[in-house]
């Protein structure tokens, strides 16, 4: 285990994460704020989904998700259609213009990272990726315990006794947080 002084220094170094996040927000198109970019990115990664699933993946409440979705719908980047399984729900789907925006966002992000990390070796970038993924795994699911799906190590009996989630299980825990 690392020493206390190392954890203290690590805490100080986390300010770099904020600086990276600010730079990434600066390269977003003027009409695509970070909340909208997060919506588009998740739809691009996971495909069509209900608004409730999107809210889970964003780790924000439905009102914040609704505002972000309304913004991208107004720009023609996604469409809402009735869910065949539940007519009260809507399925969110990228439009061709939305896919083009997802591609543009990915290019902008990649270009910025390539510029800022241009003097890093391939091994250093790979090491950072591994360590960031491990850090994310160490912090786990940021949702409150009652909103998390059962842990895979939980027995079938314990999982059956656990309260049922109020919406579909999360495909992948994300650290995406947005104030859309």
Characterise this structure.
56% of the residues lie in helices and 9% in strands. With 180 residues, the chain is mainly alpha-helical. Strands 1-3-2 form a three-stranded antiparallel sheet. Residues 154-180 have low confidence and may be disordered.
How would you summarize this macromolecular structure in one to three sentences?
The protein has helices spanning 4-13, 15-26, 34-46, 51-58, 62-74, 96-116, 122-139, 156-161; strands at residues 49-50, 78-83, 86-94.
Task: Indicate the topology.
Blueprint lengths: L3 H10 L1 H12 L7 H13 L2 E2 H8 L3 H13 L3 E6 L2 E9 L1 H21 L5 H18 L16 H6 L19
Helix pairs in contact: 3-5, 3-6, 4-5
Biggest β-sheet description? 3 strands, antiparallel
Give the CATH level 1 class of the domain at 28-114 and 122-136 and 156-162: Mainly Alpha
- Order of helical and strand elements: HHHEHHEEHHH
On the 0 to 100 scale, the average pLDDT is: 83
Task: Tell me which CATH architecture of the domain at 28-114 and 122-136 and 156-162 applies here.
Answer: Orthogonal Bundle
């Amino acid at each position: 285990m690392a020493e206390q002084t190392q954890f203290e220094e690590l805490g100080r170094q986390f300010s770099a994460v904020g600086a990276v996040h600010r730079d990434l927000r600066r390269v977003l198109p003027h009409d695509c704020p970070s909340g909208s970019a997060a919506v588009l990115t998740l739809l691009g990664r996971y495909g069509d989904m209900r608004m409730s699933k999107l809210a889970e993946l964003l780790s924000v409440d439905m009102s914040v998700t609704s505002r972000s979705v309304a913004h991208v719908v107004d720009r023609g980047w996604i469409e809402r259609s009735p869910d065949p399984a539940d007519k009260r729900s809507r399925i969110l789907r990228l439009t061709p213009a939305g896919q083009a925006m997802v591609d543009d966002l990915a290019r902008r992000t990649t270009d910025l990272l390539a510029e800022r990390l241009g003097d890093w070796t391939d091994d250093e970038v790979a090491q950072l990726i591994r360590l960031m993924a491990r850090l994310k795994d160490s912090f786990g699911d940021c949702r409150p315990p009652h909103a998390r799906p059962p842990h895979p190590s939980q027995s079938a009996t314990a999982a059956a006794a656990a309260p049922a989630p109020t919406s579909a299980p999360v495909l992948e825990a994300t650290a995406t947080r947005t104030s859309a």
